Amino acid sequence: MGEKRKLTSGESRRLRNLPLDLPFQIKYSLYYLLTLTVIMGALFALILNRVENCRDMILQSLGRDDQRILALFEYATYEISLIVLGVFITFAAIAFLFSMAAFHRIAGPMNIIVGFIHDLKDGRMEDVGRQLRKNDELKPIMEKLNELAQQLPKT
């Protein structure tokens, strides 16, 4: 894991507290965004394909190439592209912030668990019983580590 930050218990929840382990959080957030990009790209290609199919059906039913209809479909394609791009950028920004917050629920407990293991390894047993926040994802692991620490002989 990358550079980690320890939060003091009195430090309030602010947006600046969100990146606890920035490399970890950004890495998995970018995986999330890459998946989103592939899905949105496929949907965009499907929409444009349907617009072209509609254009071809209209031109075929008219029996000629009408430049006005071609221009209208070109403009419609341009407008659809702008709308899809705007939706994608907005959704990507929201998804990135959401994923950073979601991975915060993993990075924070990971930092505490790793620190707890280092304390146990160095023989510092005073933090036995350390707890995570109520909704942290790795809470069951921390509970089992506390049980294990209580069973270790005191040195």
Please describe what this structure looks like.
The chain has 155 residues and is mainly α. 70% of the residues lie in helices and 0% in strands. The chain has helices at residues 22-62, 67-121, 139-151. Helix 2 packs parallel to helix 3 (139-151). The model is unreliable at 7-11 (pLDDT under 50).
Layout of strands and helices, then pairs:
Layout: H1 22-62, H2 67-121, H3 139-151
The largest pleated sheet is described as: none
Number of helices: 3
Query: SSE string, helix = H, strand = E?
Result: HHH
If you average the pLDDT, what whole number results?
A: 80
Unreliable sequence segments:
7-11
Helical content class: over 70%
Report the oligomer: single chain
| Overall number of strands | 0
Overall geometry: rod-shaped
Strand content: under 5%
Round the Cα radius of gyration to an integer and report it: 26 Å
Give the termini separation: 29 Å
Structural category: mainly alpha
Q: How would you summarize what this structure contains?
A:
By secondary structure, the protein is mostly helical. The chain is built from 3 helices and no strands.
Q: Characteristics of this structure?
A:
mainly alpha
